[in-house]
Each structure stands twice: as structure tokens, then as C-alpha cells.
Amino acid sequence: MGLGRIARLFCGAMAVVGGHLAARMELGPVGLVLSTAASSLVIAPGLALALTGKRRYTILLALALSSAVLSGQGYLQVGLAMAILPAFLIFMFDSRLRLKPVWKEFLLAGILTLLLSAILLVPLLHFYPNTLKETDPAFAIAQPLAYVPLNEVINDVSFYYNTSLKLVPYPYLYANYIGWVPVLLAFLAPRFIPRAYNRVLAYFLLAIGLVYLCAGAVTLKALAYILPATAAGVRNPSTIAGLANPLILGLAAWGLDALVRMKWPRLGFLGTEAGISVAWLILTIPLLWSLKSAYDFGHPWLQVAQIDPGGYLVTQAMKTDSTQWVNLPFGEHYWMIPALDSGLKMGFGIRPWDWKDHQPPPVALDGTRDPVDPSTPNFVQFLANVSIVAHPENQYAYIQAGQQQIPCRAQALGGKIDVNCPTAPAGQLVVEEYRWDGWAAWLDGKRAPLLSSSLWLSVAAPAGQHTYQLRYRPWDVWAGLLLTLAGLAACVMLWLKTIPGELNSQKTRL
């Protein structure tokens, strides 16, 4: 874009401290921060490719897009697909509406992105028909479109906890504060942008508009007429509005650069020819104030909090010698860290997706905040306002021999399960993990077929004492990994082939 250092540094710093990143950490969803940043980074190589058509920007765009795909947050990926990327169509056609050759480079970037992201996409597509996600057909949580831009200039933290301009008091869904200075600078940009960059200006304006339409659920409601289940799954579209900030700051950089380059009077020093531009005196204070204002707004959302020691008392009390499913009070996010540290296997935690037609497995220990009478059978203890109740009838691994159920000792970590069963009559080993493609079993070191008639992992268990190993080695991960490696190799080869050609082209021009 040919902008000066001051404009680049200011807007780069503002992009770092803006509320669209820091305020997302209100409830600690790191994925939102990573996805907002990764999706924002698509803009730069996309514009560079649109303006120059150079192959190296094709590769950089593919790397940025694959980072956004792999960053782990679907809401921002929806915003990328419905706002940032469609706006690049402005560069695909000439004045006579004929396709320009650069479309081939964007297509190549898309192919490379699919290859680079295959390690996630192949398993996702394989399992996707089995997923179930909560939906919001009415988009009740979405902030109305007319209010979405206001969050760019509202830095009153208490405002985000009331429901004046939105429906739920969760700041991480709505806060995008960057302040009035960059917004006003962005309004100046159309006045100063050179005519040669009209398409770039149009891109910024169109992309901002599409982001806000998506964040306000306007485009999602239209999509719901075609794909109702898919559109309704985007329950928190307001988080997409954060993608407007780098676009606004791109315009602000243009406006600031134009102000800096204007012919300002100079203040000279007595007895010397040295002087300083009045621009520094007029612009420095609002620019620094703007950065500090955004920093002060974002800083409180980033804190280190001491986990309640009582949480660890509860999770330690729920540890078992053999792997078992357990439950902790639902809806309380902070249990996850103590539970993982204690090696617990959570049966019913907070997840954005569920397995269709599958209920959470029965638990051997249940931690609840509901009142429990200590005289209740199988009551274990009361710790840190949590009652722990045992359900010995629910076992993670056992031999089912007719009506008899014989518990086995199991150690399970991810896709690695080792089971030791005591001497028992012939029957079936049942491990209460849902059966799916990729699981394999071994009995005393020899391959054993999984029984297809069971909902759970199950193998025939001969009489006696035996050991079993179950391993999850899905084909889709290996297929995705190979495609991702192929994508990386293609990027390296294209890069090595491209750079010498560009250097020779520069030498020719010189």
C-alpha cells in the first residue's frame, strides 16, 4: 500500500492491543484469540496477491489460510469464508467484467490450503455426519446489525455486562474496542487514497460491510433459507465482528499516512536551522492516547487467576486406581484444568459438539452441587461444596458373562487403553468407549476382532485371566497427514522455483 513507517507502526500496535483480541479472554477461550489473529493475517497476503499476482504471495496466502483453518474456531472461519474472502472478488474482473489471470493464483492458493489443512479436514469430513451441535435458529444471541459498529468505540466495561444493546451479558462475544482515533482516521481515508488504489479501498469497505452483516446475522439468516441446520449452528456470530478491526485499521493507516505527509509548518529552534514539524505536536498526543486507551481496556481481560484449591481437593478425591468415567459440576469451566491435572476421565463436560444418537457414558463417580443426604447409599464425602456420590454399578471396563459383570482394571489415555481382567468365565470384554473406525484390539498380544454388535468397544473374552490392548489408529489421520506433507512439499518447491524467477525479472528491469 506504500504507507509510511508511522502509519504502519501505529496501526500494527493498535491491532495488537485492540479489544477484538484481549476482551475475547473474558472466559478464557484462547481459540477465539488465535482464530481472530489467524483470520486477520489472511488479508495482507491476499491483497498483495491481488495487486501483484506474484506466486510467492500465493504461497503466503495458502499458509495464512491454512493457519486460519487449523486455528480451531468455527465462528471466525465462517466470517473468513463469508466476508474476508468474498470481498477479493473485486480484484478478479477488469473494467469490462472479464476474468483477470490472477484468479488462477487464488485458485492455486485454495488448493494448497486444502492440502495443508488436510490433517484436520480429512478426519473432520469423515466424522462430520456423526456430529451434533446446539443450534440457534432465531440467532437470539446475535447483536442487531445497527449496534455492532458501536462496540468499536465503547470502552465502558460495565456496559458489556448489561443487556442494553445485546441479549446476553458476556463481554467476550461483543467487545471490539479500538477507539475514536482510528475510526476517524479511517473516515479520512477515502479522501486521500490515490485513484490507482480505488479497488483496494472498495475491498476494505466491502469486507467491513460483509463482516458486520455476518456478525449481525443478516447473511446467516439469508443462508438459513438454504442450509437451515448449518446456519443455525453459528450461535455466536457477534464474535465475527472482530475481523472488521484490521480492515478499519488498514483504512486508518491510509488516513494517518496522508496527514503525516501533508505540508505542515515547522517550528525552528533559535539560532539553528533545525526544526520540528507541527504534525508531531498535533498527532503524537492523540495517537499515544488512543493506544493507551485500547491497552487500558484490554489489560483487565488478561489476568492470571489462582485456581480454588478446593477444586484440586475434589478432583484428587475422585481419582481412582482404575480408569473410570466421572462427572464434575456442569457448567463450571475451571474444573477442566484440575480434572486434567488429576488424570480424570470426564464423562459430561462442556463441549461445542456431541456425538449424534450417543448419550454420555454412565459414570462411576458423580460430583454435584445439588444437596445430597449423607445417609444416601454410596455417598462418599462432601468437599469444597461438592458432594461426591459413587455408582459402583457403572464400570469402565468389565467382563460380561451372562448376567454376571466382572470389573477389570484399565488404564486409558486417549487412544491407548490397556486392560487386565481377573480370572473369569468366558464372555465379552466391554470397554465403555464408543466404537468407531480405527479401533483395533489385541488379546494377550494377538490380534482380536472387535464385536460389531456392541455400542461400546467389545471383544470376545475366553475363560481365564487375560490382558487386552485397544488402540485407536484411524486411517483418516494418516491420509490427512500425507496430504498435508504433500502440501508442504508443494509450497517449498513452488517457492524455490518462484524466487529465482522474480530475482531475474528484477535484474531485467534494472
Radius of gyration: 29 Å
Task: Report helical residue fraction.
Answer: 40-55%
Mean pLDDT: 90
Approximate shape:
globular
Sheet with the most strands, sense and barrel status: 5 strands, mixed
For the largest sheet, list the strands in their spatial order: 5-4-7-9-8
Strand runs, count = 18
Task: Estimate what percentage of residues fall within beta strands.
Answer: 15-25%
Terminal Cα span: 22 Å
Poorly predicted regions: none
Total domains: 3
The number of helical runs is: 17
- Kindly name the structural category: alpha+beta
Notes on the structure:
The protein folds into three domains: 5-124 and 138-301, no CATH class; 313-390, no CATH class; 397-472, Immunoglobulin-like. Helices cover 43% and strands 17% of the residues. It contains 17 helices and 18 strands. It has helices at 5-17, 19-22, 30-40, 43-52, 55-70, 74-84, 102-116, 118-127, 180-192, 198-215, 218-223, 228-232, 244-261, 278-298, 309-317, 336-341, 475-509, and strands at 131-133, 266-268, 275-277, 325-327, 345-346, 353-355, 365-368, 379-383, 386-390, 397-401, 404-407, 409-413, 416-424, 427-434, 439-443, 446-448, 456-461, 464-472. Strand 4 (325-327), helix 16 and strand 5 form a beta-alpha-beta unit.
